[in-house]
Amino acid sequence: MVSVLFWIAALFSEVIGTMAGFGSSTIFLPIALFLDGFNTPELAPDLF
User: What pTM did the predictor assign?
Assistant: First the structure.
């Protein structure tokens, strides 16, 4: 179910980001972090 919400959020952020005139990652990143979580070792594996 999270996978479906993830893809719907990606589509939504692409459309809104394009219409607003800025990158879709500005909208998608907070949504993706809410759905998938934030793991520091995945972000910077060389530091740990």
Answer: 0.60
